[in-house]
Structure formats: structure tokens, C-alpha cells
């Protein structure tokens, strides 16, 4: 909880910071290129982490493997913090002192930003209800290793290397909202890749991994660009924090809801043609329908 709280503070400050540094008409291209670079790093990190966990599990000491990964992550975070000190910061303009109550209520009273925050919370529920269970399903039902799961992540990142710069240009040309709606529609079928996969038939997971690399960048980049666009320059930090709080609330609700459904349906098996759906697979289907609903919400309300 403490780490997530501190991460939230850092993320809010970073988003406000970057909105001052990157011109609005260049955000799509900039973040597309930036995310491509981070994807390359993520591919290597995911593969090495998966191999490390599998190695130590085979040696009978999985705790050592996890501890080593966390230690490397801490060192990487410290290096990242140092690199942030080298990044320029615009001159802070002095503004009239604002009451705390006004900082809390301003994002709620801002109609456009309020709609964006509520949409983010709804999207967090739609994807979060199943998000914690994909890896568990892969390990328990599909009998995948950690290294295999990492390979699917690498495929997603590899595809994103190509799509992210393209999506950035599309965002600059057609707008973040349009690109995001198309991307959300593209993610509707992705959970079904896990539903249709079996231990001996993993093609749906390969398609899922490729589809994730195509459609998710338009969503992750889109949220960031829309927050920067709709948050006023005055008291922007308060708006970014409010957006993060609403998204976090949606994630919290989704975690409780997903856990409750998984517990209630534990042991349930539903025969769907040649497929057998357990409680995890049912959550994936729920998430797919939730994404469909949010696509309509985005088109009408965002």
C-alpha cells in the first residue's frame, strides 16, 4: 500500500511535469517514441525475470529468485530517480494561494475533466476485474512456465515497437479520443484468447499477445494525452491527482469484485462446445463485455 501511494505521488508529479515540457501537437509522436524505447527495455527485463524465477524454482528456492528480482528493481528505480534529476524543469510561476477545498472540488466541477475521470474509473473496473487472474490461469490451467508467460509479454512489446510510433502520429492527426475508441474496440476480443487456449493449443495466446501490442498503446498513450489536454495549466497537479484517485478507486472496486466472483465461482466448470470454462475464464468473459460497454461510453460521453 505504501509503495503504491508513493508511486501515485510520483506519477502525478511526472504527468504534470511532462505536460509542461512536451508541446500538445507533438505529444503523440513523442510518447510513441518514448514508449517504444521503454518497450525494448521491458522485453529484456521480462525475459530475464521469467528465466530467473524458473531457474530458482527448479533449484527449489523460488523465494531467492523473487528476492533477486525485487533487488534489481530497487537498483533500477534508484538509477531512474537520478536520471530524473538531469531533466529540465520549467520555471515555476507564482500563483495566488488556493484553498485546499478548492483543489479537491475543482476537478469535479470541471465538466470535461470529470467525464474523463469517470470514464477512466469505469475502464479500470472493466479491465481490472480479470487482470490479476491471467497469469494464474496460465500457470494453473494452461500449465505455462514463467518463462513462457514472459515470452508472450515480449511478443506484445515487440509488436508495440512498431505500432507505438504509428499510433502517436495517428493521435496527432486524428485526435486522442478517436484513436482511443478504436483501440478499446480492438481489445474487446482479447480476453477470449485466454478462454479458447488450451495446454496443447496456444495459438489464441499468440494472437492475444500480438493484438495487445496493436491496441493497448492507443489506450495507454491516449489516457495520458487526454489528461494533459483537459487539465488546466492552473492547479494542474490537483487535476492529475484527482484523475489518479478516480482510476485507483475503479481498480480497487475491480479487485474486490473480481476476487468475490472468483471465490464464489471457484470449482465451477461450464462446458462450451469443446471448451471447459472455469471461474477464471468466466471473469475473462465478464471483462470482455465490460470493455464493450465502455467502448459505447467513450463514444458518447468522453
Automatic annotation (TrEMBL):
It comes from Kouleothrix aurantiaca. GO terms for molecular function: transmembrane transporter activity. The chain crosses the membrane at residues 35-53, 65-86, 115-134, 146-167, 179-197, 203-226, 238-265, 277-299. It holds the Pfam family MFS_1. One of its GO terms (cellular component) is plasma membrane. InterPro entries: MFS, MFS_dom, MFS_trans_sf, Sugar_transport-like. Keywords: Membrane, Transmembrane, Transmembrane helix. Its main location: membrane. This is MFS transporter. The lineage of its organism: Bacteria, Bacillati, Chloroflexota, Chloroflexia, Chloroflexales. It comes from the Bacteria.
Amino acid at each position: 500500500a505504501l509503495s503504491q501511494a508513493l508511486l501515485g505521488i510520483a506519477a502525478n508529479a511526472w504527468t504534470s511535469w511532462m505536460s509542461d515540457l512536451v508541446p500538445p501537437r507533438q505529444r503523440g509522436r513523442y510518447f510513441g517514441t518514448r514508449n517504444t524505447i521503454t518497450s525494448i527495455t521491458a522485453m529484456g527485463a521480462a525475459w530475464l525475470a521469467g528465466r530467473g524465477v524458473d531457474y530458482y524454482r527448479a533449484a527449489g528456492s523460488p523465494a531467492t529468485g523473487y528476492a533477486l528480482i525485487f533487488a534489481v528493481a530497487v537498483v533500477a528505480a534508484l538509477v531512474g530517480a537520478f536520471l530524473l534529476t538531469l531533466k529540465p524543469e520549467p520555471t515555476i510561476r507564482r500563483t495566488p494561494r488556493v484553498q485546499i477545498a478548492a483543489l479537491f472540488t475543482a476537478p469535479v466541477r470541471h465538466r470535461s475533466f470529470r467525464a474523463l475521470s469517470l470514464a477512466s474509473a469505469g475502464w479500470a473496473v472493466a479491465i481490472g476485474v480479470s487482470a490479476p487472474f491471467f497469469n494464474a490461469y496460465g500457470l494453473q490451467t494452461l500449465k505455462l512456465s514463467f518463462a513462457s508467460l514472459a515470452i508472450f509479454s515480449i511478443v506484445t512489446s515487440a509488436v508495440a515497437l512498431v505500432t507505438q510510433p504509428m499510433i502517436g502520429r495517428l493521435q496527432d492527426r486524428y485526435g486522442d479520443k478517436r484513436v482511443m475508441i478504436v483501440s478499446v474496440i480492438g481489445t474487446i476480443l482479447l480476453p477470449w484468447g485466454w478462454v479458447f487456449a488450451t495446454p496443447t493449443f496456444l495459438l489464441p495466446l499468440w494472437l492475444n499477445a500480438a493484438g495487445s501490442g496493436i491496441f493497448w498503446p492507443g489506450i495507454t498513450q491516449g489516457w495520458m494525452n487526454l489528461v494533459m489536454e483537459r487539465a488546466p495549466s492552473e492547479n494542474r497537479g490537483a487535476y492529475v491527482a484527482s484523475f489518479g484517485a478516480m482510476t485507483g478507486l475503479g481498480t480497487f472496486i475491480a479487485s474486490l469484485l473480481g476476487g468475490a466472483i472468483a471465490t464464489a465461482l471457484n470449482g465451477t466448470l461450464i462446458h462450451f462446445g469443446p471448451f471447459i470454462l472455469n471461474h477464471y475464464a468466466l471473469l475473462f468473459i465478464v471483462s470482455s463485455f465490460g470493455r464493450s460497454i465502455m467502448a459505447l461510453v467513450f463514444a458518447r460521453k468522453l
